[in-house]
Model the fold of this input.
Amino acid sequence: MQKGRILLSVTGFNPRRWMELLSVDREVVLEPDGPTDPSITYAVVWKQRPNVLARLPNLRAIFSIGAGVDHIFTDPGVPDVPIVRVVAENLTQYMTEYVVWRVLDHHRQGMLYRAQQRKKVWHEPPQRPANDISVGIMGLGQLGRAAAAALLALGFRVNGWGRTDRPMAGVTTFSGDGGLIPFLNATDILVVLLPLTPATQGIVNYWLLRELRRRNGLGGAVLINAGRGRLQRDADILRAIEDGTLKEASLDVFEVEPLPRTSPLWSHPRVFVTPHAAATSDPAHLTAPMLAQMDAYERGEPLQNVVDREAGY
Ligand code: NDP
Ligand code: OXD
Done:
């Protein structure tokens, strides 16, 4: 029997490689043959065109090209079929590298040394051991837990905050609204790996940053956000850096992406900017598992990594 067609609906980047690799097993189209095309059984999407999925009668599941799925829900016409998100070793590894890289750079005073080098200054500031620093991970999920394990191996103390209490060996865990302030009060370097949902939008604001621990000798609290830009308020981060609430920040994500050229974040000496590049979705690693899931689902097996639509992630 002929396998159903895949609709590959992507905006913001060229999906050529995704097209090639998905096409090894199924016919792939970039547009359906009309809004009610019966031949489409799966959709693989990144910021799909609004309403393109709404009336496809035989659509069985939607596959997100990313770990996050907020890009799917901005479309008012998302039909009630399962949504599968990316959970993959390769993507997790990229995110772990990013988090470890940024934590170590802040911890080992990378910003100060780069400024000193530009001025040819030979000066060694005080060093402190990793086990004197608490890294707090907001969002102790697939990516947060892997980053936590790597940070623990380096000797950092690690706190984690989630919606529900999910203990992890070696990590001090906090959960829910009641756990947020104690989590922040015990955190020197805050790593944000939350999904963007109605409950988390704008959570990284000035008042939250005020709750981070600022101990003498450590030089101030640090923010690292690789979750989503709309978790944060860019202006609040600038304010916090300017008034000493934060010492430095590493930001991979922004309220508006691409970050507008007029944003003061681009040139701030204590902000490290990357272009939403912490953990890329590599089709060479992700298309085969997607195709395998489609086949397994058609054999009657359950889909893996299905989004909880009520929770929004
Ligand atoms: P998971 O779903 O595995 O983990 C999400 C975590 O956030 C869970 O610990 C969850 O709590 C927690 N959480 C969700 N909502 C709340 C809330 N309201 N209050 C407190 N905690 C909450 O996601 P991943 O780890 O796979 O990915 C996390 C995010 O990283 C993605 O959604 C995406 O936005 C971002 N991302 C960014 C990339 C980049 O390149 N910058 C690349 C890939 C992902 P609980 O454990 O209780 O469910
Ligand atoms: C993702 C992303 O969600 O790359 O995977 O942002």
